TrEMBL record:
It comes from the Eukaryota. One of its GO terms (biological process) is actomyosin structure organization. This is Myosin motor domain-containing protein. ATP binds at residues 172-179. Residues 84-772 form the Myosin motor domain. InterPro entries: Kinesin_motor_dom_sf, Myosin_head_motor_dom-like, P-loop_NTPase. It holds the Pfam family Myosin_head. It comes from Oncorhynchus tshawytscha (Chinook salmon). Keywords: Actin-binding, ATP-binding, Coiled coil, Motor protein, Myosin, Nucleotide-binding. Residues 645-667 are annotated as: Actin-binding. Belongs to the TRAFAC class myosin-kinesin ATPase superfamily. Myosin family. One of its GO terms (molecular function) is ATP binding.
Length: 1405
């Protein structure tokens, strides 16, 4: 068993999922379809026989059972657990089926149904939890899932950046959420431009509401399954805002309105209308009572919940119509047509007897609702042959041909007539609704590009719904359209990409998948008579049931069984549908004439257009339906389906496609898991895994050389400076090479092709981010400048406003001052009386201006009306021209076919008449007794001989039959041997397919490993560069710190020297002061001696104490002076603080000395490293010199080759100069040959005329044979001249090719020479840089040696300072001791003096 840390993957191929206990290896093998069970691989025990080659033994972790499986079915998945919720499958380390399935299921369980698959998006449906939602307030804000938002953002940025149309195409099965995903994409596309665009979210929601009602049915897959193809185009203006919309639809399943499938309903609008109509509309439409039976299956809802749901949907439908601007009359016309269809289904058709309605009353109600008479409706439905007779009697040739084509085939039944009328009515109604939608979304703004969202009905198979029935015609149409889309996806993803690589010379190790949808498409497109037996066995298979076949859809992974019963009645031409068009055009103005497409393609909607983009799209559809097979077989329903698919693909090819691959993940009913076999089939059908491998190993991002340079040259200032000028026409390839060197990208991530730059995934995103960073800085400066400019303008405006306010205030103050003046009052009374005439004049002028403006407005409105009328007339005329041109091409084709048939018939008639005449001449020339009779007798004898020979042959035939029987037995034995050999061959083919599968798996693993290695190499390279940069910065920082420390030591030592000098100066000043005090004391002593007679004991005592103290100070000063005079034996007293400070300074000096010694050692080591680097550089220099010598040698070789090529070129130029003369001669000969040909043709014509004359005359056969021989000779000469002319032309072309080839070789040699020169210059520059580096290193070495000497001198100085400081310390200690002794003596002397004074005092007393 494995740990929880390694359990997470649920991986499947056809059966179990196995998980290895070591690492994250996961095995999958096919035992039982569709189960996911973890297992452990086992090794054989000792003594146990080994398994056969190709088998492995595994143990299931669920029940512990053992199974032997094939080794080639095992898949290893090396994806870590962090990639279980990976947003992009291309980022997986191991891309295979198991890894992809595990990631998809993990994301689905985490409520993340959308996953990126390279450039496309994969939708896992149905999601367990909806991420995106619409806000409750007016439902105008759409919160899209991150993957969908990223896809829409990428499409929008690509459209704005490239100014090219983009398309998002949804493919997948029916019921996989394609329509819902397309709606979400449209909401997210228009969400940034809601404030300005003419098609906001409310209108888009209204569009989808109407399309849901009129184009969807309820089925077992979903409540609203689409039954029409849709292309919704959103046009964006130059500001990047949505300016208009255009809807184009294709109703492939037009019989849905009259033929309901089992388990499905009719179109949803019928049930909504029957449940939600108001009482007035029911009265108007005569729908108060519902008949019990309806042949179209249109029944009102019976359950209460269904009625409520249908009523709410009908209310939403009415609101949507009001939002899109449907008028009341247009809505009434729509409800009238729907009610007419309902009553027409209630009327029914007689199955036996004459063609008529079953219910005459319902038919009358239907005719009144449709706005016509009952007889007119009956004639349009059943008696369309009367219209054909009328056209044949009154119309021209075109009508006669149309009626002839329409009468082809068997007579239609009444049911077919009613169904044709219903389908025609609903087609016209749906097309009219699409036209109204386009009217609401249209705009006359100029557009930049468009985003097209393509939604089509999915692939339908009754087996998906567990139904036992076979599929019908409608399923074939939708499945064919899905196969065409998958074929385009295959071509765009693989074929075009590999062709682009081959065209630009880019090597990519990838092979396209062998199977493609083109096989099924080609087999369906081909007529039945052209389908060979091999194709029938490969893609089509005849079933055991009658009129049933099986088509291998999705490259054989999803076969669909079709029932062909009743298909002829569906595909044949039905005139009732054409009569429905005229019926609606006569009844309502909503259904105008439309001649844009052939009658059988009336289901196309949106072919009209008002803007430039819509006209281009409509022109694409018209071209599809006016050329090719459309002009020849325009009355074929089968070819109409193909033409609609061609039109859809032609629309998509105009844009850059992005595919939304919808995958059905219906959960199992048992364990709550997923339908794994269905997932595997869908992944295999869309080639997701090969597409991911090509996306990872190839170069999915590419740009032209000029676009790449112009877009990213701002990232390199030198390239920008060199090639940024618009007046320079640079060499794009050279400029791009320099730009790539400056960008410092990984060499494996970019490749230069012939005219493009190919990049790995993520490179373009990285470059865009770097460009955005650079541009953002520029934009910030630009915004600052703009804001400053606006602020200055605002300041000026405020100053003007302030001045105006002051003026107004001064005027008001002045007015208040003069308001009471009498003359001002008089002026205020007289002034209005004078202004009356002026006001009248102004009023008249304004009335005249208003009249002119109204006339101009009327003229403008008339001009706009005339312009619209002219545009409509132009569209109608264009459609008529296309129709007439198609009919003209049809007539021309038929005329050519008839003329060919007439020519063949005339030639055959002439040949027969010639033979008849020859035989008559022969019979006339030979009578009865001629040798002819003798010849007949001889022939009779020969007949008898032949009869005898026949008897002999019969005997031999019996013998031959016996031998044949023996050979038949031997043939049977050989057949058995051949069967055994075929079985062996099939076994070998099976083994070969297994080997191919293993090779593919190994190649995919190698590609995954290569991608992983490339990513790791890039990361390691980046990390190594970052580490080197960091180490370099650290080393530089350490050097700076050391230099700062040395400077600090130097400064501190200088500071200490200054302090010592100041201390010496202070001590010298103290010594001078002591000397002065000594002299003063000596003078005082002399004065005291003079005053001995006047003895004062206190003064004497004080003087005696001062004398002793002075003596001690004198001794200390003498000692200090001796210390100064003799530095080695000086002693000076000092304090304890001074001594401690000296000790501290001593320790600091020792520490600094140690640091200086360490710095000296590091500098010496750096010096050694520099010497080693210098030696390496010298070695590299020698290698570079050798390379330069080799390059010079190669250069000399190239010069020699260039000289040889120049000589060859000179010879070729001589030949080239000779060629024009030769060509002129050949042209002259060619003209002579043409003249001879012309003369020979004239002679041939005269000879043919003479031959005809001779054939018509009775001239002999010899003259005719001579003329024929002459004609043959002339024809032979003509053919010889033609062959000679062709040979001369081929010779000229060959010579031109050789000249061009030699010119290309000369250009290549010149390019190689230029490249070698650039290489030599590059190596010379590099050598120069190396020499400079060597000089820098030598200079650094000299600086370091000089610094070492300075440091050594500083160390010696510091040692001398230390010795002096120690001597000063000893002197200070001696001074302290002496001072202490002197002070003690003074104190003792003071005490003795006091005692003596006391004694003297006592004695005196």
């Amino acid at each position: 068993m494995v740990n929880d840390k390694h359990q997470s993957h649920l991986l499947v191929t056809n059966g179990f999922v196995l998980r290895l206990p070591i690492g994250r290896f996961i095995l999958s093998f096919s035992v039982i379809g569709g189960f996911c069970i973890p297992a452990t691989q086992l090794k054989p025990d000792e003594g146990t026989p080994d398994l056969p080659a190709g088998l492995v033994r595994v143990r299931m972790e669920t029940d512990g059972t053992l199974h032997d499986v094939m080794e080639h079915d095992i898949q290893k998945v090396l994806n870590p657990s962090e990639l279980d919720l990976c947003e992009d499958l291309s980022e997986l380390q191991s891309v295979n089926e198991c890894g992809a399935l595990h990631t998809l299921t993990s994301r689905a369980k985490a409520s993340l149904p959308l996953t990126q698959a390279g450039p496309n998006l994969l939708n896992f449906w149905p999601p367990l939890n909806q991420h995106g939602k619409v806000s409750a307030r007016a439902r105008t804000v759409w919160d899209a899932p991150p993957a969908l938002a990223a896809l829409v953002r990428r499409v929008y940025v690509s459209m704005v950046g490239t100014r090219r149309d983009q398309s998002v195409c949804a493919v997948g099965r029916s019921g996989t959420g394609k329509t819902t995903s397309c709606q979400h994409i449209v909401y997210n596309v228009i969400s940034p431009s809601v404030c300005v665009c003419v098609c906001p979210v409310e209108r888009i929601q209204a569009v989808f509401t109407i399309l849901r009602s009129f184009g969807c049915v309820s089925s077992q897959h979903s409540d609203a399954s689409s039954r029409f193809a849709m292309v919704l185009s959103l046009d964006f203006n130059h500001a990047g805002l949505a300016s208009a919309g255009h809807l184009q639809t294709m109703m492939l399943e037009k019989w849905r309105v009259c033929q309901k499938m089992e388990g499905e309903s009719n179109f949803l609008v019928f049930s909504q209308m029957l449940a939600g109509l108001s009482t007035e509309m029911r009265t108007e439409l005569q729908m108060h009572q519902f008949p019990e039976a309806n042949c179209f299956g249109i029944v009102p809802p019976t359950k209460v919940e269904e009625k409520q749901r249908a009523s709410v949907a009908f209310t939403k439908l009415l609101v949507a119509m009001e939002t899109l601007g449907f008028s009341a009359n247009e809505q009434r016309a729509i409800w009238h047509v729907l009610a007419g269809l309902y009553h027409l289904g209630a009327a029914g058709a007689c199955k036996v007897g004459r063609r008529a309605f079953v219910s005459f009353d319902s038919a009358q109600v239907a005719s009144s609702v449709l706005g016509c008479e009952g007889e007119e409706l009956h004639t349009a439905v059943f008696k369309h042959h009367l219209r054909q007779l009328l056209q044949r009697a009154t119309g021209g040739g075109r009508e006669r041909h149309a009626t002839t084509d329409a009468e082809e085939g068997p007579r239609m039944s009444a049911t077919q007539c009613v169904d044709g009328m219903a389908s025609g009515l609903y087609e016209e109604l749906f097309t009219a609704i699409v036209s109204l939608i386009n009217r609401a979304l249209s705009s006359q703004q100029l557009t930049l590009a468009s985003v097209m969202v393509v939604d089509t009905p999915g692939l339908r198979n009754p087996r998906h719904s567990a139904e036992e029935r076979a599929a019908g015609w409608s399923e074939l149409c939708h499945n064919y359209l899905q196969e065409r889309l998958l074929e385009y996806y295959y071509t765009h993803t693989f074929t075009h990409t590999l062709e682009r690589y081959a065209q630009d010379g880019v090597q990519v190790d990838f092979e396209a998948p062998e199977t493609s949808p083109a096989e099924v498409v080609s087999s369906i497109d081909q007529p039945a008579l052209q389908v060979t037996h091999t194709q029938l066995s490969a893609t089509l298979r005849k079933c055991e049931q009658p009129l049933q076949c099986e088509v291998s859809h999705l490259m054989g992974s999803d076969p669909v069984r079709y029932d062909l019963t009743g298909w002829f009645s569906l595909v044949q031409n039905n005139p009732s549908a054409l009569n429905a068009i005229s019926l609606l055009q006569n009844s309502s103005a909503l259904f105008g004439p439309r001649a844009s497409v052939p009658p059988l393609c009336r289901g196309l909607g949106g072919v009209e257009g008002g803007s430039q983009r819509s006209l281009q799209r409509s022109g694409t559809v018209r071209k599809t339906f006016s050329g090719g097979m459309a002009a020849i077989r325009r009355h074929s329903h089968c070819i109409s389906v193909k033409l609609q698919a061609d039109a859809l693909l032609n629309l998509i090819r105009r844009a850059r496609p992005v595919f939304l691959q919808c995958v059905g993940a219906k959960t199992d009913s048992g364990g709550g898991g997923f339908d794994v076999p269905a997932l595997r089939i869908q992944l295999h059908s869309t080639h997701i895994l090969p597409a991911l491998q090509l996306y990872r190993t190839g170069y999915p991002e590419h740009m032209t050389l000029s676009d790449f340079r112009c877009r990213f040259q701002a990232l390199s200032p030198p390239v920008m400076k060199r090639y940024g000028s618009v007046f320079i026409t640079p060499d794009e390839r050279k400029a791009v090479e320099e730009l790539l060197v400056e960008l410092d990208l990984n060499k494996k991530s970019t490749v230069l092709g012939a005219g493009r730059v190919f990049m790995k995934r993520g490179v373009l995103k990285y470059l865009d981010q770097q460009r955005d960073k650079l541009v953002s800085v520029w934009l910030v400066h630009l915004q600052a400048a703009c804001m400053g400019h606006l602020a200055r303008q605002q300041h000026r405006k405020m100053k003007v406003q302030q001045m105006a306010v002051r003026c107004v205030q001064s005027n008001i103050r002045t007015l208040r001052g003069v308001a009471k003046w009498s003359w001002w009052k008089l002026l205020c009374r007289v002034r209005p009386l004078l202004d009356v005439n002026m006001d009248d004049q102004r009023l008249r002028a304004k009335e005249v201006g208003i009249d002119s403006e109204t006339t101009q407005a009327k003229l403008l409105s008339l001009e706009i009306w005339y312009r619209n009328e002219l545009r409509q007339t132009t569209d109608i005329l264009e459609t008529k021209v296309t129709a007439v041109s198609s009919e003209l091409s049809d007539e021309r084709f038929r005329g050519e076919a008839v003329s060919q048939a007439l020519d063949m018939e005339r030639g055959e008639r002439l040949r027969l008449t010639r033979e008849n005449k020859e035989l008559q001449v022969v019979l006339q020339q030979h009578p009865n007794n001629s040798p002819v009779h003798k010849e007949l007798q001889g022939m009779a004898l020969q007949l008898e001989c032949c009869q005898t020979e026949v008897e002999y042959v019969r005997r031999r035939l019996k013998h031959t039959e016996e031998r044949l029987e023996a050979e038949r037995q031997t043939h049977l034995e050989l057949d058995t041997k051949v069967g055994s050999l075929q079985a062996q061959l099939e076994q070998s083919k099976r083994s070969a397919t297994e080997l191919k599968r293993q090779v593919r798996r190994v190649t995919s693993d190698l590609q995954d490993a290569r991608v992983l290695t490339d990513s790791l190499q890039g990361r390691v390279h980046l990390r190594f560069e970052m580490e080197m940069e960091r180490m370099k910065q650290i080393h530089l920082k350490e050097l700076e710190d050391k230099e700062e420390e040395l400077e600090d030591v130097h400064k501190s030592s200088q500071r200490r020297l200054r302090q010592l000098e100041m201390q010496l100066e202070q001590e010298y000043e103290e010594k001078q002061m002591v000397v002065h005090e000594k002299h003063d004391l000596e003078g005082l002593i002399a004065t005291l001696c003079d005053q001995v007679g006047h003895r004062d004991f206190d003064v004497e005592k004080r003087l005696r104490r001062d004398l002793k103290r002075t003596h001690a100070l004198l001794v200390d000063a003498q000692l200090l002076l001796s210390t100064i005079d003799n530095p080695g034996h000086s002693q000076a007293p000092g304090s304890k603080e001074h001594i401690e400070r000296l000790h501290c300074q001593l320790e600091e000096s020792e520490a600094r000395r140690a640091e200086v010694e360490s710095v000296q050692k590091t500098l010496s080591m750096e010096l050694e490293n520099a010497q080693i680097e210098l030696e390496n550089i010298c070695k590299h220099k020698s290698l570079v010199d050798e390379q330069v010598a080799q390059l010079q040698h190669d250069k000399s070789d190239l010069l020699k080759r260039l000289e040889e090529d120049q000589e060859d070129l000179n010879e070729l130029m001589k030949k080239h100069k000779w060629f024009p003369n030769h060509i002129r001669e050949l042209q002259a000969e060619l003209e002579e040959a043409k003249k001879q040909q012309h003369t020979l043709q004239e002679e041939l014509a005269t000879s043919m005329a003479r031959v005809q004359f001779l054939e018509s005359s009775t001239v002999g056969r010899s003259i005719v044979s001579m003329q024929e021989a002459r004609v043959c000779d002339l024809e032979n000469k003509l053919e010889f001249q033609r062959g000679q002319v062709k040979r001369f032309e081929v010779l000229v072309l060959r010579l031109r090719d050789s000249v061009v080839r030699l010119g290309e070789e000369l250009e290549q040699s010149a390019q190689t020479e230029v490249r070698e020169r650039e290489n030599s210059q590059y190596y010379q520059q590099r050598l120069h840089h190396m020499r400079q580096e060597v000089e820098d290193l030598s200079q650094r070495e000299q600086d370091s040696s000089r610094r070492c000497l300075e440091l050594e001198m500083q160390v010696t100085e510091l040692s001398a300072v230390r010795q002096t400081l120690q001597a000063d310390l000893e002197t200070s200690i001696h001074r302290i001791v002496d001072l202490q002794a002197a002070l003690e003596e003074v104190e003792s002397s003071d005490e003795s003096d006091d005692e003596r004074y006391e004694c003297v005092t006592v004695f005196d007393v």
